# Entry
Amino acid sequence: MKKGEIHTGTIEKVLFPNRGLATVESSEDAETENQDSGVRVIVKNVIPGQHIRYRISKKRSGRCEGQLLEVLDKSPLQSEEAGCSLFPVCGGCMYRTMTYEDTLQLKEEQIRELLTGAIGAPAQQDRQHAENLPDSWIFEKIQGSPDPDGYRNKMEFSFGDAEKDGPLTLGLHKKNSRFDVLPVTDCRIVHGDFNLICRCVLEFCREKGWTYMHRVTHQGYLRHLMIRRAAMTGEIMADLVTTSRLPGGLDEEGEKKALDELAARILALPLEGKVTGLLHTVNDSPADVVKNDRTDILYGRDWFNEKLLGLSFRITPFSFFQTNSKGAEVLYRTVREYVGDVKGQTVFDLYSGTGTIAQVIAPVCSHVVGVEIVPEAVEAARENAGLNGLENCEFLCGDVLRVIDEIEKKPDTIILDPPRDGIHPKAMPKILAFGVDRIVYISCKATSLARDLPIMIEHGYRVEKVRCVDMFPFAVPTEVVALLTRNGSRP
# Structure
């Protein structure tokens, strides 16, 4: 088998994350037609049972990877219509043509297999029997999102074109492309208000003849449109992100007048939610990310309200907040359940972000200490704790690796919600040295969890139970919550 060869095969299974296993059935190269039969190749962006055509893209150390060229036959799992004009070229909803129940089962099986490879198989018997086995753990049923469609409360849409020198578009990048931007008209992972606002803004910018910032020349005006919509309150905030280079023929006064005109058009839309803030952010960074050099308020205010589990949260344009509000309630209920009885205890919430988990736990414990490296997130956490009347929350700004050495209080329970790469190798021994009886680990990247759990087991902890929570319906990612207890301190 050589790089560049084209083969056909059927996807036997899909490993986490998004790694399909195809067995070579035939080759379009006559010289290798038979000799590679039965070889397994990793192909991404596939569904179990699909019959595909693919090109060998990598071959090293006996491992082969392929690039999907064409789906020859659908999988039996693909029983639904996508219902989205961007599927499958967008790539955001890999499993859109499956039933939601089948996607949950697929994700559950993927995480179970991944963790089994890391820490051994979970107990097949009931919990009571499992507790008599020293190395057993419980893999609980995956929890789905209350709203599989329209669940995202934040989207960052890009300006560009769908083809070179084509008309201006506003939407999402084409899968595996830095340049092509697909226009959004009927995206199913957001509320319909998002689509209405996108169409309105795109129509306005086309009328004005405004150009987007080219990713090579860095010339142009338009960059992104960020929309945030609270699922519980219906409040909407939209932020047009541009460069400081004014569109042709406009001075600063002309730009302000045009932006005020755009704001008026958005406010006139027949939206289900209520617009509470329209903003204009200037970003001259060459990187293709939403950054803030300056933000001006065109209408309303620069924050909106969301509610989770009876608590209120004030969310600013660039502050982190779980993108699936109703799914976050499911996730946080799981965390609260796994934390258990913490009455009278001090709880550390490490990698605390905007302090949402800390505030969910605060009413049932004595004191919560949150540690987060992003100053804006810490400020938001303190502000929201004040809004919710929580006086037993303390939020510290800094790297977990260093800050935990400076905290005078000692924890009784630790909650870990690290970034995608997991816990820093140098921070792990310090965290485990506290010797708390219970640790709850929330992972947004299961491969990082699979790497970290064996280390924690080596330091005297055992995995009690694990539960997946689907925060991203029809997409690849899955949140995973694990409860660990110190040997000899089982609940």
